[in-house]
Amino acid sequence: MNLRRKNAAEGESGPATRAAIRAVLRIALPLALAELGWMAMGVVDILMVGRLPDSAVAIGGASLGNAIFFGIAVFGIGLMSGLDTLVSHAFGAGDMRDARRSLAGGIGLALGASASLALAIYAALPVLGLLQVTPEVRGQAEVYIRMLLWSLTPLLLYTVFRRYLQGIHFVRPVPFVLVTANLVNLAGNWLFVFGHGPFPAMGLKGSALATLCARVYLAGCLLAAVKWRDRAAFGEFRPDWARMVQLIRLGLPAAMSVAFEVGVFCVVTALVGTLGAVSLAAHTVALNAASLSYTVPLGISSAAAVSVGRAVGAGDRRGAARAGWMAIGLVVAWEVMTSVCLLVLPRQIAGAYTSDDRVISFAVTLLGIAALFQVGDGLQVVATGALRGLGNTRTPMVWNLVGYWGIGLPLGYWLCFERGLGARGLWYGLCAALLLIGIGLAGVWRRAAGSGVNT
Fold it and tell me: Is 245 within a domain?
């Protein structure tokens, strides 16, 4: 009798597993494509400014400018992470009115946060001087940031609309909008960076202006997508202070977690900036290439958050655990393939960004280090997404704080400046942090899934 029950359970688990994989992929593939489109905009910017006369200075200025901008703006993006939990739970429970409350709260939070974050970004400009970044690179970075500041509000609104759409499992417009936004960005770079028609050549400032145009386009298109999918989304729209507080309670730890992660990469970029233009350009190329592969795990992580959240909202704890494990398996498979590509084709990858042999040679070394931390990087982001689906945003925050700032950055600094390894030392520190955080958060998810996904 027990044997028959076991066989029946095993027979049911196969179809259930395949259904879980299909459910995760239906969300993950469009979102991964969207992340790829998002990253492609950064790649286009680097490729375009890399064709300016002094490519090392231009690439370095764009790199530092983005480091400061995103080092602070990402806090606002992280604040919106609570939408994944609240909207997906409401959608799983069939309560669209509650989902719309979260949308209203998210819009209010985005508008309120953008002004404060813009002031913080502007106030951070003197950091470049304190870090003794070369005057040429510092000047380019400051020009870039001042233009990019205008894109902060549309960026946060885009984030709110996207998280609402993925929370209600309507993700098809997201990759389409990002792909077409790349066309807007490409056209803007062509017009503004080098100057065509009535537009003068603006150099790096023109690249930031192209990014601004693309982000306004992103926010406007996803606003239209929300209104098309959910015609009642703004029917009773009003400030919902209670929901904003709830979003902050969920989003603040997530924002801190993302800020710890992105912040350490920004600090590393700034430290590499003190080592010279070639080191900074090589670091930028290698980081951009590694980040490009990271888009797929990011998409799967978002899929894990809303798939787990929807199952929790529907009261299906077993389904929530299954969705999380499927996402983790998909990410590990992807990151193994990515590691092989970085090891086998590093010179071809670096050569796509620049023709400077000095930059290419150093970037090849850094890409080899990046290959070592791919699986750990994928594990940490997908486990964070699965835990966010449960409403647990505090645990990843703690792991990121300890891993990046308690271990990775001090180790990297010591290897770079005390042991004389330069940028390689900083990358070895990042590698150690990512492996530690990835393994740790995967263990947290394992315990949560094994206990019925209660945290």
Answer: yes
Q: How many other C-beta atoms are found inside a 10 Å radius of the C-beta of residue 365?
A: 17
Identify whether the C-beta of residue 356 lies closer than 8 Å to the C-beta of residue 55: yes
Q: Burial letters for 241-262: b for 16+ Cβ neighbours within 10 Å, e otherwise?
A: eebbebbbebbbbbbbbbbbbb
Number of folded domains that form the chain: 1
| Structure-derived torsion over alpha carbons of residues 80, 85, 86, 90, reported in degrees to the nearest 10 | 140
Q: What pLDDT does residue 61 have? A: 81
Structure tokens given for 5: 């029950």
Buried b (16+ CB within 10 A) or exposed e, 66-92: bbbbbbbbbbbbbbbbbbbbbbbbbbb
Q: Which of 27, 32, 5 is nearest to 88 (CA)?
A: 27
Here the tokens at position 224 are: 């239209």
CB 318 within 8 A of CB 352: no
Can you give the pTM of this predicted structure? Answer: 0.78
pLDDT along the chain (455 residues), means of 10: 43 61 76 76 77 75 82 86 90 90 92 91 80 75 89 94 92 89 91 81 86 95 94 78 88 88 85 86 87 85 89 87 90 93 91 84 93 93 93 93 96 94 94 95 90 56
Collect all residues with Cβ–Cβ distance below 8 Å to 449 and sequence separation of at least 6. Answer: 321, 324, 325
Does 157 fall in a domain?
Answer: yes
How far from 226 is each of 55, 68, 337, CA to CA, in Å? 41, 31, 35
Structural domain includes residue 8: no
- Is residue 240, in this structure, part of any structural domain at all? yes
- Do 266 and 67 form a contact (C-beta atoms < 8 A)? yes
- Which domain, by its residues, includes 174? 19-450
Q: How many CB atoms lie within 10 A of CB 451?
A: 11
Sign of the four-CA dihedral 263, 326, 40, 370: positive
Tell me if 157 sits within 8 A of 14, measured CB to CB: no
